[in-house]
Amino acid sequence: MDLRLLLASSAVLLMASITSITPTSSTTMETGGTSQCKVKWLFGILCQDVSVKLVNQIKTWQIGQSCQYAGERCSYELVSAGQYQIKATHTDPTTKKLNELDFLLEQSTVCKVTGEAASEASNDPADNSNFCSLQNLMNGSDLIHAEGYKQFSNKWICPGFDTANCSLS
User: Fold this and answer.
1) Engineering a disulfide at 158: which of 43, 111, 146, 153 sits with its beta carbon 3.0 to 4.6 angstroms away?
2) Paired sense of beta strands 34-43 and 76-81, if any
3) Alpha-carbon gap, residue 105 to 46, rounded angstroms
């Protein structure tokens, strides 16, 4: 079967599962003083390759001597990395807000990655720090140019997704 057909059918199934999540879902609301974001990605490469790139990028951007001039390219910490799950944190260098990041990887005909970020709730409806903490790793690792790259989310399961302008500077 053609890889493009497999990617397209996987994308349709993934979108169907995302759009079935309603705005009253626990992932869309600020509950218990936290704000959460969920993003799904598809890749036409092996999950092992995706995992290596993400882990390497987190390690590259770990807290160094000074984040003064590194912008968003610092203050990541690798918490754990297994075959199907990566846990990390990111501290925003400006606001000092901590984002807890979780990537779940599932290999099928394509590599499916679910990224979730949680942080202290913000009163700013335009706050997209959870999304940008996830997306900046995709950008920095160059996974956005990987074969078959597709991204799925919306403003209900990832507040700020529709207005995000993630910058690495």
Assistant:
1) 153
2) unpaired
3) 10
